[in-house]
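Re: beginner question about structure tokens

> Can someone show what the tokenized structure looks like for a real chain? I only ever see the sequence side.

Sure, here's an example I had lying around. Input first:
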Amino acid sequence: MKRIAVVLGLAIATTGFAQEKETIDRNVEVTKETKTMKVKVNNDDARKMKVTAESKTPVMLSNDDKNQINQSRVEAPSKVTVSTATDVDGDSWYDKMTSSTFYTFNEQKYLLTKNDYGFKMTAEGQDDMKVYKTNQNNYYIFESDNRNGVGYFDANGNFIVEYYDYDETEVKKETYMPNM
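And the corresponding structure tokens:
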């Protein structure tokens, strides 16, 4: 009887874990590519690096052939995340991990790179912007050379920055959209 109770308990526990499902958005095409390479540092030391690029593209269909079986697909912006793992000390484990995502604002591409304090935003021809984590979930302190404000991610994955414009005496809002 004791053996039956143990087997039954294990079966229930295993079934409970097996029922957990990862939420998958069926309207998004995901492409993932990983490359491992050795990079020379200081002319003689070679470090192992693993670079993973993941692209998430929403599947959007043309309205021209709506309600048809074979609909044409419309090109949609992709959210690209690049993760880099580096082996610093030569063992079999990767020691340092960085992750970057591309966003767009006013047709300018920005690279968001995670770090210890939050993340850094960089764009070609502009000074770096710092985004600091706060104690409040999903709220950040945004800091750049010409404006400071509050940032947060909305339900669509956009990064929203709100700041006070002293010249126009009003609160302004900028929306950085995930993009390729």
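Each token stands for a local structural state, so reading them left to right follows the chain. Residues 13 and 19 are 10 Å apart (CA to CA).
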